[in-house]
Specification:
The protein is of the alpha/beta class. It contains 23 helices and 16 strands. The structure holds pyridoxal-5'-phosphate. Pyridoxal-5'-phosphate (PLP) binds next to α13. It is an enzyme of class 4 (lyase).
């Protein structure tokens, strides 16, 4: 299996280990398989597989330069006792109308752990496979959850250094505390005076800066990425779509071969793209519903074919989705353009120059697997309350975006196909918003909110939250967006 850039030709393709180390292609594009795998499997084979077995199977379809043993060791190390549920990703049915795929049982309480526990395993083995002797510098822009999850995943991994940039004032109190309390001699975390899009744009620019890259190479360093732009992070996310399907067959909520729809709270378009790849691999998915918060650039895109980031940027209570430039959409555009890299180049150039582009009717016709909707701040609060009052079940604000959009979709478009909502974070990661929605009273932030939510829910506090407020915090380091490169230079 070879990987090419969405902006480059197939004759420049590289193998998966090299693509994982590089993260982003040198031309600014994203790596995609040259020939998308068409594995032969029957769905009934998947029923009864453990999460680890499912993940290994999916990885083996894409990463064939790794040995069976390397993949086995990777999934065993990634999906173990650091998760607080033996199923890793349990699915739960609620009378409020949906199935919730709980992706938050990992060490940092958000779905990013599913990919970022395994990425370091794949990365360190890739370094060996490729004979790379540079120190790998994981450069990451985060909207809140990728930062902690990548620090946690790469903590003290030999030959790696992590530098995380997050938007100053743009993350929740628990997210901030999680980032500032990470331990490990190879971790740096920096606030940027700007929003996530600015941080991500600068990270991409630094990646594309060849002169800087050469300077670093001389000093023994090489950049890589832990964002969902990295194919080594995206592919592991396909596993939970298959695993959920198999669980629902095992629970007899669906029959083998039945279709499911998924609603995905979306920011950088990585999670939902993994669902689209699952469908391409043959999983019976009817629709993938792209759910946005008030930053609803993707809702408009799917409704009109026009992507336009020239609009106000809102800081919402679902901060991990406060994004106006969704990087992974480029991989979908590449498919919709029948793998024509010149079309992608042209659209991405328009986006860079004018902040907008319009796709052709032919391309739009290729997007029929998707539907889209968004939830306002008021919708999110109402949905948290509705689900809590119906089921005694607390959902976090990101999950609530998807849950609200799914609920509307079921009422207006399709009320018969079973609907799975991707539950991307634990309510304990955003206790202030969850409590305020449920109690409609003012809430004190931080530890007080955590304890108050715990009293209300009467459940076991996740380990990741229990210890959080006892750990020592680093002081916050803040830089301007144009100082990010300088920071890297001085700290490597
Ligand atoms: C990152 C994140 C999202 C958005 O996922 P993308 O892959 O960026 O679309 C949604 N919810 C939570 C809690 C997240 O951390």
């Amino acid at each position: 299996m070879k990987y090419r850039s969405t902006r480059g030709t197939a004759d420049q393709a590289i193998n998966s280990a090299a693509a994982i180390i590089q993260g982003l292609a040198p031309d600014g594009g994203l790596y995609v398989p040259v020939t998308f795998p068409q594995p032969t499997f029957s769905l009934d084979q998947l029923v009864g597989l453990s999460y680890q077995e499912t993940a290994k199977l999916v990885l083996s379809w894409f990463f064939d330069d790794y040995s069976d043993e390397q993949l086995q060791d990777s999934v065993t190390a990634a999906y173990g006792s650091q998760f607080d549920d033996a199923k890793i990703v349990p699915v739960t049915a609620k009378t409020a109308g949906n199935y919730y795929m709980e992706l938050f049982h990992g060490p940092t309480l958000a779905f990013k752990d599913l990919a970022l526990q395994v990425l370091p395993q794949l990365m360190t083995r890739a370094v060996k496979l490729q004979g790379v002797d540079h120190n790998i510098v994981i450069l990451t822009a985060t909207s809140g959850d990728t930062g902690t999850a990548s620090m946690r995943g790469f903590q003290d991994v030999d030959g790696t250094q992590v530098i995380v940039f997050y938007p100053h004032g743009g993350v929740s109190p628990v997210q901030l505390r999680q980032m500032l309390t990470q331990q490990g001699r190879n971790l740096k975390v920096v606030a940027v005076e700007g929003n996530f899009d600015q941080a991500q744009a600068n990270v991409k620019k630094i990646f594309g800066d060849r002169e800087f890259g050469q300077q670093l190479a001389q000093a023994g360093h090489q950049f890589s990425s832990a964002n969902s732009m990295n194919i080594g992070r995206l592919i592991p996310q396909i596993a939970y779509y298959f695993y959920t399907y198999a669980q629902m067959v095992a629970q007899q909520t669906i029959q083998l071969g039945d279709q499911l729809s998924f609603t995905v709270p979306t920011g950088n378009f990585g999670d939902i793209l993994a669902g689209y790849y699952a469908k391409k691999l043959g999983l019976p998915i009817k629709k993938l519903i792209c759910a946005s918060n008030q930053n609803n650039v993707l809702t408009d895109f799917f409704k009109t074919g026009k992507y336009d980031r020239n609009r106000p940027f809102f800081l919402t209570n679902s901060p991990s989705m406060d994004i106006l430039v969704s990087s992974n959409l480029e991989r979908l555009l590449f498919d919709a353009a029948d793998q024509d890299e010149t079309v992608v180049q042209d659209l991405m150039q328009q986006l860079a120059q004018t902040g907008a582009y319009q796709i052709s009717d032919d391309m739009r016709a290729q997007l029929s697997d998707f539907a889209a909707g968004f939830a306002s701040e008021a919708d999110i609060q109402a949905e948290i309350k509705r689900v809590y009052e119906t089921d005694g079940y607390a959902i976090d604000p990101h999950t609530a975006v998807a849950s609200a959009v799914a609920h509307r979709y079921q009422a207006e478009e399709d009320g018969t196909t079973p609907m799975v909502v991707l539950s991307t974070a634990s309510p304990y990661k955003f206790p202030e918003t969850v409590l305020k929605a449920i109690t409609e009273q003012p809430v004190e932030p931080g530890l007080k909110a955590v304890n108050q939510l715990n009293q209300l829910l009467q459940d076991t506090l996740p380990a990741g939250v229990r210890d959080l407020f006892e750990l020592k915090e680093r002081a916050e380091v803040v830089v301007e967006p144009d100082e990010m490169k300088q920071y890297i230079q001085t700290h490597l």
